[in-house]
Write a structure and sequence with these properties.
Elements lengths: L9 E7 L6 H4 L9 H16 L7 E12 L8 E12 L2 E10 L3 E13 H9 L3
Antiparallel strand pairs: 1-3, 2-5, 3-4, 4-5
């Protein structure tokens, strides 16, 4: 299941902060800066991308735990870089160190946990709730 995964796998992604990513637009604050839910989403995306090429066909990962600090505001129009590094593999549980920087400073840091899933089985289970 995770034989192609190795501690140290890493991915960085770069995004431009746009109005739709602001705390004001997300309803998580009345200011036009990068929203914490978007910061977390960037950390999750970088983590997922760090390991996706190491998974067998039909497998993916889903986020299960986030423990982060949002350290500094980033205005609309500034670029951010999110980085995730796989630090632990425990069966299907994967733990990542995550960081996000803007052009001036580190704006977020923490850890993120994901689980390896079989997509078809996961979707069938979720749809069973309907």
């Amino acid at each position: 299941m995770s034989e192609q995964l190795e501690v140290g796998m890493r991915h960085e992604l770069v995004e431009m902060v746009i109005n739709e990513m602001s705390a004001d637009a997300m309803g998580s604050g009345g200011v036009k800066v990068l929203a914490t839910p978007i910061l977390i989403a960037l950390m999750e995306k970088a983590s997922m991308l760090a390991v996706c090429d190491g998974l067998a066909e039909g497998m993916s990962t889903v986020g299960t735990k986030v423990n982060i600090e949002h350290l500094a505001p980033t205005p609309i129009g500034m670029q951010v870089t999110a980085a995730a590094t796989l630090k632990e593999i425990d069966g299907r549980r994967l733990v990542f160190d995550v960081e996000v920087y803007d052009a001036k400073e580190k704006i977020g840091q923490g850890s993120h946990e994901r689980f390896i899933i079989t997509v078809e089985k996961f979707v069938t289970r979720a749809n069973g709730k309907l």
